[in-house]
Amino acid sequence: MKFIGKLLIGILVVLLVAILALYLLVQTRWGSAQVSRWITENTDYELSFDQMDHRFSSPSHLVLKNVTFGRDGKPATLVAKMVDIGVSSRQLTDPLHMDTITLFDGTLNLSPQTAPLPLQADRLLLNNMAFNSPNTEWDLSAQKVTGGVSPWQPEAGNVLGKKANIQMSAGSLTLNGVPASNVLIQGELNGKEVVLSTIGADMALGSMTGTARRDANGGWKVDNMRLNEIRLQSDKSLADFFAPITTLPSLQIGRLDVTDARLQGPDWAVTDLDLSLRNLTLSKGDWQSEDGRLSMNASEFIYGSVHLFDPILNAEFSPQGMALRQFTSRWEGGMVRTSGNWLRSGKALVLDDVAIAGLEYTLPQNWKAQWMETLPTWLNSVTLRKFGLSRNLVIDVDPIFPWQITALDGYGTNLQLAKDRQWGVWGGTATLNGAAATFNRVDVRRPSIALTANASTVAIGELSAFTEKGILEARASISQQPARQATISLTGRGVPLNIVQQWGWPALPVTGDGNIQLTASGNVQANAPLKPTVNGRLNAVNMDKQQVTQTMTGGQVSTVAEPVVTHSPQPSP
Q1: Which residue numbers delimit the AsmA domain (predicted)?
Q2: Is 179 exposed, middle or buried (0-12, 13-18, 19+ CB in 10 A)?
Q3: CA atoms in the 13 A half-sphere facing the CB of 306
Q4: Is the pLDDT of residue 114 over 90?
Q5: Whole-model pTM above 0.90?
Q6: Which residues contact residue 240 at a Cβ distance below 8 angstroms, ignoring those fewer than 6 apart?
Q7: Which value, to the nearest 10 degrees, does the dihedral of the CA atoms of residues 415, 421, 423, 425 take?
Q8: CA–CA dist 304, 39 (Å, integer)
């Protein structure tokens, strides 16, 4: 019996010595290399570390130095100067579930290809780490990250696990191409739901704070978001800039405040932007709201050829549509003011009052093509219940037929400028007049026009202007049918006879000043030339009583009456 007892004691001592030797050996570089080699050769992972450190003052912690870890044949998932692994009695039943894993001074690359990882922990802590998560819904790259995930239970396709609390700070971060610095994030993961109770960052020379959450369907709700003094330059068009928002299943904005922002893109810019948006949901290219509000003002806004100064916009949203309480802006040297409603039913924009004053506007070179373009699906019609023009200058530099009107005034009621997503004059009345005008290098004074439009016809009941010595008066009508048949009756008294030549009629064989009577008709269609459809008759007589009558058929003068000189009878001797 004594022999057996001594033998057992001897074996125990040998085992203790072996364990102690192994314990001391693993803490050497040679021992660490052997452990790394064994794991690499016998598992699907590659591991290397220079040294393992364990101190009896902290018996539940193992420290690995200069660690590299990853899947076989893949880029390293973890590179760190030090990894502190906290163990507990749980390792007896679940050896790969740690109490804590703390990573120091390195890089952690987490992507769908790296998960699931073989380890889990009650807490994953990062200390001055770089964090990369490419090829995921959140393309994330962060540096100087400090914080933790609790618990950390990575699985396939979800490197942070399904349920965890997150608290992290980062010196710099880029999320889906948007850079930020001094970032603080606190939140919670619950399956596919994400709750970010604290978001704070310096970005684009400004700051962002707020709270947000994502539902299981991928839609986001921004409870509160504030952007201060943002200075952002983008290489994207305005549509592409907002494209990430439109691709979300839904975006519900509880409160968004923007203060003193400056944003710029290739063909758009806004400076000194202040914006307040409440209770608006964007989803599937549309929006919904019960009692939403938008207030916005800026020093300058540019979009393509539109350049606004000091724009102010106040609007309210409801299930019925949008109430435009106020829109005012300085534009092209003048002022624009309006209010009205956009009605969801019928997608109709109805402006109650439009005022334009002091404008100095040169029409874009492609304004005729823009006039013929189909409007977006959300804008079926545009109606001005009341409008007023005052002291405006409008210029068209079209080389074929340039024109300009000076001191343009006007007023009108119920003027429908768009119908079935097509620009036009579809209804209402308007009266326009100017102090002076030039039409294809012909100067006139006091031009005026009065028109009435309905579903079938645009009737011009008054069209007049003074030339240098005489007056022009006309009446016209344009059919609203697809053929767009137009008729005009023009009378000129004491006017230069070559005036009609400047406006498209062939040259007359008589010259000087005189009287003109012209009737003509043609089809004014967008995609077909006008001239071949014009039929008309012109009679002209000059001050010397030379008279000519011309008939036009299909745009060509087919008959010409030779000039006739009428002599006054001589008195009897």
Answers
A1: 4-539
A2: middle
A3: 10
A4: no
A5: no
A6: none
A7: -30
A8: 62
Grouping H, G, I as helix, E, B as strand and the rest as coil, residue 65 is strand
How is 217-278 classified by DSSP, letter by letter?
A: TS-EEEEEEEEES-EEE-SS-HHHHTHHHHTSS-EEEEEEEEEEEEEE-SSEEEEEEEEEEE
When pLDDT is cut at 50, 70 and 90, the band that residue 47 belongs to is confident
Q: Classify 146 as helix, strand or coil.
A: strand
Q: Which two tokens stand for residue 185?
A: 């994030």
Within a 10 A sphere around the Cβ of 537, how many other Cβ atoms?
14
Q: Give 238-241's long-range contacts (Cβ < 8 A, gap of 24+).
A: 238/265, 238/267, 238/268, 238/303, 241/265
**What is the predicted pLDDT for the residue at 568?**
42
CA within 13 Å, CB half, 487: 8
Give the pLDDT score at 17.
45
The two structure tokens encoding residue 198: 């604290």
Secondary structure (DSSP) of 158-186: BTT-SEEEEEEEEEEEEETTEEEEEEEEE
Q: Look-up: residue for tokens 């990250």?
A: 145
Angle, CA 299 vertex, CA 294 and CA 301 arms, to 5°:
75
Q: Are 358 and 333 in contact (CB under 8 A)?
A: yes
Distances (CA, A) of 48 to 64, 86, 204, 350, 491: 10, 19, 40, 71, 99
Asked if omega into 529 is within 30° of 0 (cis), the reply is: no
Task: Supply φ then ψ for residue 374, to 5 degrees.
Answer: -75, 135
Alpha carbons 487 and 492: distance in angstroms, whole number: 17
* Distance (Å) of CA 347 to CA 135, 318, 344, 411, 420: 40, 14, 5, 25, 10
Which whole-number Å values give the CA distances from 319 to 252, 281, 288, 290, 344, in the listed order?
15, 11, 7, 6, 8
Sign of the dihedral defined by the CA atoms of residues 487, 492, 497, 498, in that order: negative
The 3-state DSSP composition of the chain as helix, strand, coil percent (nearest 5) reads 10, 60, 30
Q: Rounded distance, CA 106 to CA 500, Å?
A: 83
Q: Average pLDDT over the chain, rounded to whole?
A: 86
Query: Which tokens in the block code for residue 243?
Result: 């494209």
